[in-house]
Amino acid sequence: MLTLNEVIKGCQSHDRRAQKALYDKYASLMLGICVRYAKDKQEAEDVMQDGFIKIFSSIDQFSEQGSFEGWMKRIMVNTAISNYRKNLKHYYQVDIDEPHVKAIGDNWEPSEYSHNELMGVIKSLPDGYKMVFNLYAIEGYKHKEIADLLGIDETTSKSQYSRAKKQIQSKLFELSKIKQS
């Protein structure tokens, strides 16, 4: 079995075996990232394929000063954002100025939710909310970075994140009422 350094060096010399080894090792992790930004699994798979092409074509630029996995994740996220921008005109748009969120009392305690339930709630957010929520809460980007990536104001990023959290909380509250009945 090849070490990660051997795989990277093999990919840099366009060795198909090394590229396959890299793909096999990281495909499921990268698909998980892409699923968070895509409309469906097929679109996520397309984004992942585009991301791997970018990884293979720019692997010479990996400086070995940071985590290789982190470098790949950043490429996947950027590829997903590019895909989102490219297809924005095809997505159903929701007016983000008037979210339909019910207020929840301060004494609300969420019950435990499965990974699938949480991901389902996040996937159900309007696209703008989902994009900002994923970038901030899951990927760890700062609002300034999100604003630069998405071409929006930093305050827009913050407000969309806040509204996303409120919608998630509301949807989880509704889900907990269903689970309790």
Descriptive overview:
It is a single chain. The chain is an all-alpha fold. The chain folds into two domains: 4-90, Rna Polymerase Sigma Factor, Chain: A, CATH 1.10.1740; 115-180, Winged helix-like DNA-binding domain superfamily/Winged helix DNA-binding domain (Arc Repressor Mutant, subunit A), CATH 1.10.10. It has eight helices and no strands. The chain has helices spanning 4-12, 16-37, 41-58, 68-87, 115-123, 127-138, 143-150, 154-180. Helix 2 crosses helix 3 (41-58) and helix 6 (127-138) crosses helix 8. The termini are far apart. The model is unreliable at 91-110 (pLDDT under 50).
Question: What key attributes describe this structure?
Answer:
Rna Polymerase Sigma Factor, Chain: A, mainly alpha, globular, Arc Repressor Mutant, subunit A, 0% strand, 181 residues
Tally the helices: what do you get?
Answer: 8
Estimated structural class: mainly alpha
Strand content is under 5%
| CATH class type of the largest domain | Mainly Alpha
Using the CA coordinates, give the radius of gyration: 19 Å
- Globular, elongated, flat, extended or rod-shaped: what is the shape? globular
Percent range of helical residues: 55-70%
Secondary structure topology:
Elements: H1 4-12, H2 16-37, H3 41-58, H4 68-87, H5 115-123, H6 127-138, H7 143-150, H8 154-180
Helix pairs in contact: 1-2, 2-3, 2-4, 3-4, 6-8, 7-8
Summarize the structure.
This protein is an all-alpha fold and 181 residues long. It contains eight helices and no strands.
